[in-house]
Design brief:
Blueprint: H1 2-7, H2 9-23, E1 31-32, E2 35-36, H3 37-48, H4 55-68, H5 73-77, H6 79-96, H7 102-121, H8 125-131, H9 133-138, H10 151-168, H11 172-184, H12 193-199, H13 212-233, H14 236-261, E3 282-289, H15 295-309, E4 317-324, H16 336-354, E5 358-362, E6 366-368, E7 373-375, H17 379-391, E8 399-402, E9 413-418, E10 421-423, H18 427-436, E11 443-445, E12 450-453, E13 457-464, H19 466-469, H20 473-478, H21 494-499, E14 508-511, H22 512-519, H23 531-539, E15 541-551, H24 557-573, H25 587-600, H26 602-615, H27 619-632, H28 634-645, H29 648-651, H30 662-675, H31 677-698, H32 708-711, H33 718-724, H34 726-738, H35 742-761, H36 773-793, E16 806-807, E17 813-814, H37 820-836, H38 841-857, E18 860-861, E19 864-865
Parallel strand pairs: 3-4, 3-9, 4-5, 13-15
Antiparallel strand pairs: 1-2, 5-8, 6-7, 9-14, 10-15, 11-12, 13-14, 16-17, 18-19
Helix pairs in contact: 2-6, 3-6, 4-8, 6-7, 10-11, 11-12, 13-14, 14-26, 14-27, 15-16, 17-22, 24-31, 26-27, 26-31, 26-35, 28-30, 31-34, 33-35, 34-35, 36-37, 37-38
Amino acid sequence: FIEWLLDNFYLAQREGLQAAAELHGCGRIPASKDSAALFTLCQALIRSGGGRVTPERCRMFLQGCQLVYVLSRRELMYFIPILKAAAVSELASLYGSDICDLDSAALWAERLFSTLRALSTLDFSDILESVDRTEQILKCDPAEVYPYMSEKTRSYYKKRVEKLAKIYHVSEHRIAEYVLSLSQNSDCEARHVGYWLFTRPMGEEKKPHSGALYISANILLTLIFTLLISFAARNAAVGVLLLFPISEIIKNLIDLILLSTVPPAHIPRMELKEGVPSEGRTICVISALLTSEKSGASLARRLEEFRLASRSCGENLLFGILADLPDAPNKFMPEDDKYISSVKTAIDELNKKYGGGFFFFTRERFYSKADKRYMAWERKRGAITELAGLLCGRESSLICLSGNTLSLRGVRYILTLDEDTRLTPGTAKELIGAMLHPLNHPVIDDDAKKVVSGYAIIHPCISVELSSCNKSRFAKVFAGHGGTDPYGSDSSELYMDIFDNGGFAGKGIIDAWAFTECLHGRLPENLILSHDAIEGAYLRGGYMGDSELTDKFPYDILSYYKRLHRWTRGDWQNISWIFGRGRHLSDIDRFRLFDSIRRSLVAPFSLTAFICAFFLPKAEFAAAAFVALASYAFHLIVTAIKNLFRDEREVRIHFHSTIIRGVSGALLQTVLKLAFLPFEAYICFTALITSLWGMAISRKGLLNWTPASVFEGKSHGVLRYVRSMWFSLVSGLAAIFLSPSPVGKAAGIIWFVSPFFAFLLSKITIRQTPVSSSDRSYLMQCAKQIWSFFEDFCTPEDNFLPPDNWQERPPMGIAHRTSPTNIGLCLLSCLCAIDLGLTKTETALGLIENILVTLKRLSKWNGHLYN
């Protein structure tokens, strides 16, 4: 018996340590005498069953408990870890005692170990939810919204109840009861319990965050430190040089503090278990520019991928291509028909394959007097405006060349994506569910024609596509680890977390009616390039950090800075909305627009500070250069400080990656930013001049935009980098030959070689390891042996399912059992066998078909195969 106890000691140790880890951050919970009340209750539960705990006993025990002692949400949340701790405590007392009755002790220990095993594998969430008094009260929501919300949103509501209970010093279920009574005595949107939890908590008016303190802190602290340094240096020029570098440091520092103390915001949403309902009918469109005959097949393939990734949405999610033809000297060009025909053919094939649901929209070019060219009206902004108008029954110049326009009736939302964006599985459903939640319904101020509560736009977190992260050395440093994170939590966005205002990043879901009501005929033509910033301000954009889209990252440095040039031009062209045009916008919306302009001036002023330090070797200019350096090294400094205080367990990397990250990644980013500083300053300054000249004088080229796909994929020689980065060469040569400072000369050398360095960093890095003929022969032999296993053993006797194993020694033969893992491996092997030419295509596809027929007949749990 003692040996058996020792053999099972690992289980008690494992579950005990896991319980301790889960309880580490639980905070204070109610106590009775010397221990937590919940721990005492768990001990009673274990002892009353002689050490055995089952889900049904837990349910009955907790239901009885709630009649006498109502457990809080926090106590229910930690019920299982505390129950584990109580079971381990009972085992500890058994291990440490003198055992007289071995049979009784063995039975007791066996039941305790069985309890620990059950607690580590079974899902108790349904039981805990069924006994949660707060949950049951909120489920009586008169608006009948709460029961159909997502699990995460319901948890968010209960956290809010817990917070209000602490504020008002009453129990959580009393708060829930009061909120329910307010809902029952209200009309319209106030009948939803969430209205009295968030919009008007407990019936009190919620004071919105105006952003005045945040804006004032940024401006005043920047001015104070700039003036202090100017007075200390006794040089006003130093103050002017440092105004924007200091503003960058102050802004980053304030944002860092706020993001460290404020939890990420959560946008409530409906679960949509049965798919998207008719009132949430949505069309997902790719905004694209047709640049070749291959565009049609490529865009259609992307749409089909989106449909497969969003199958759970059902028939109320439609898909479309919103395509424009490139600018041209004439209204019609010879290649137009080829481009349009390629898209129409591809979309028609999709409609035939899936029975409809796909659309192809395009527009005729119009003559732009300013640019003296034929082009699509207002580019992407115009296309979305025309589509919103079409869905709202207004006049529209959009031409639907493929798809049944009758299917567009009742479409309420537009999910807009770029041609290099990927729609990850579940994201469309999450976004539509958020738009359908009553707390998010947009409310428009009729006078200002602006959304004042709710959201008319919601956009998710935009991550970098996995394939982009390793494409070049430049991408490895700047793109991040990339891909989707299935275990990720909410990501932070300062304006959303603090001010409930997430703006818009150009890719997300739009309420077509609100878009049309607020923006129709409102915005000037031939001016707005960064339209998403203005749209997010008027339509009150929301940021949903726990949903994700992926986007490409420029692997080529020149493409990266071309994008920066376009963004900077767009920011400066929005300058009038900071002042007169933006009178209806909130202070925080105008500050967001101002901040984009401020950020574009950091590089030119920092470069000027460095040049002054290199050419005018005075202490005050050296100090200015040091501050400018600090503004660029801020991320490195913060990463290094975090690394010093980080727990060793957090430092472990749980994946292999060639991405450069951590302190080394931050150091490389800082070094490269400084090496390319002259080029960045040149890009920002020329973007500023181009925009101001276009707005004030020429009125030309204000909407110039070229997709990244036009540049990427082409091989560029080193001369192109030299021509494009000529300013870096000139700056470097000037510093090398004219700077009296050794540091200036060293910087000059780096700046001079930066175009060549950029060329090397931008080269596509595809590692190809040559395989010898002997290695190839060996690998093919292995592949044949693997395939022969499935070919020989997936037989009609076993319904074509792969056996778990075949034992040769001792000769036990086939194990007539399988698992989802075995089946998945077999299906993948069928495809590999076709690719490697190990079997006929018909043979492998026949096996796949037989397996799928069997899988349809198998019993399942919530759609999942039993193991």
